[in-house]
Specification:
- With 306 residues, this protein is of the alpha+beta class.
- It folds into three domains: 60 residues; 95 residues; 124 residues, Glucose Permease (Domain IIA) (Distorted Sandwich).
- The chain is built from four helices and 14 strands.
- Strand 1 and strand 2 form a beta hairpin.
- Helix 1 runs parallel beside helix 3.
Length: 306
Amino acid sequence: MANERLTLIVVHSSRQAPRSISINKRLVMVAAGLVVAFLAFAVFSGIRTFAYSVRSAQLRDLENGNRILREEITRLTNKVSDFEVEMAQHVEFEERLRILADLEPMDEDIWGVGVGGPELAAGAVVIGPVGSTLSGLNEDVDRLLRQIELQSHSFGEILNRLKGRSDELAHIPSIRPVDIGYISSYFGKRTDPFTGRIGRHEGLDFSARRGSKIYATADGTVCHAKYDRGYGYTIEIDHGNGVKTKYAHNDKLLVKKGQKVKRGDVIAYLGNSGRSTAPHLHYEVLVKGIAKNPLNYILPSDVVVD
């Protein structure tokens, strides 16, 4: 069996005698197997190369899609962050309006507008870092939408409270006492420039050029206009309902006690009188004798309160 041979007879087209070739049958089978194996390997390699090309193209498309998705998420994240900053400014403005309307400030816990429940709807779950980012964005947007709804309700409450109160509003401080310069010292604790000790600063200091105009921040009656040892040339205006404003360290007073003033009237020129280190205006808002943060009584210049 091992020595079985195959005989091939080769016939020439010419008149030459036929030739016979004897080949070992086992050798033929081995050769045929090698040919089949080579063809199979070639086909397999071709299929594998084609599949790799397809997969590479799919991976490139996927990576490109992921890059676009990451860029879009970054853009949305930045927009949400900008909107959060703007919302914080609106909340601060809304708080000032509530003070002017004599309404209680909105509680911080209410502004949190917390809710429960799943982060994403069923069937919309995305795993991994992208899913975590999308979940966070979803929560931020939902919270901002709830805050907008809450603020809309608050503004409605404020408008209802302020209807028919134009005369009362005219007597509530609501503008900057100077239209130039900057705030050099805020309300609250600070280091005393003379003693170096921590003390309470009960107003705002506006630094500006000597001689800058100082304005009444609301309608009222001048109840004090003279030189005080510590405050220098000082004006106090009684706006009614227990509200008063104080303007200190002036260079020159333009009003006198008992005089009626309107919001925006020039009442003095900024100076450096009294216990002062440089030209500035010390401005206070007092409600029933208690100093309040004047920033809460300064509305944006484009807001009409009359």
